[in-house]
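Sample entry as discussed:
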Amino acid sequence: MFENETRIPAAELDSLPAPLRLELQSLLLGHRSLKSFIEILANAPLVLEAFLVFGNSLDRCGLSQELQAKLFLAIGESMSSEYDVSAATARAKSLGISEEEIRRCRCGTSDIPAHEAALAFAKKLVRKHGHLSEEELSEFTRTVEDPRTLIEIVAAVSRIHFTALINNLAVTPADHPLAKEIRG
């Protein structure tokens, strides 16, 4: 229906303020290129700027790039976002995550127990809109006791959730090869 076009038009990046354009140039050159998404988000320059600042802060937090990529895979899949799953798959591959581990993460599991706990927590967080029972929260905090890590995972999930909402609404064309379907 929307093949090769988006329901929200791409903004002209040249019309953005110079500091924001400079930051985008370095982002768009990297392995985390999200060009089509960025062009759509640029319709609201202050939202784009906030998104970039939030992302830069998450890059400096205690969560490893590997765990952030795995969260991106799991939440992108949960949100049925073709764009996000494809971008997350490209990012995971660039970090050296195996095809099998990528598939597991998209299903919400991992070969690393702490990552599996984080993925299960993240998926529940999205599915239940943050309304986790004491038991569900305790299950996660038995694995990850640090409140900072808990908050950082919630922050990472909220960022991924935001991108998936925009990309699903806009039907954003993929910037990366499409990820293989895993659902039966």
Summary: The first helix runs from residue 18 to 29.
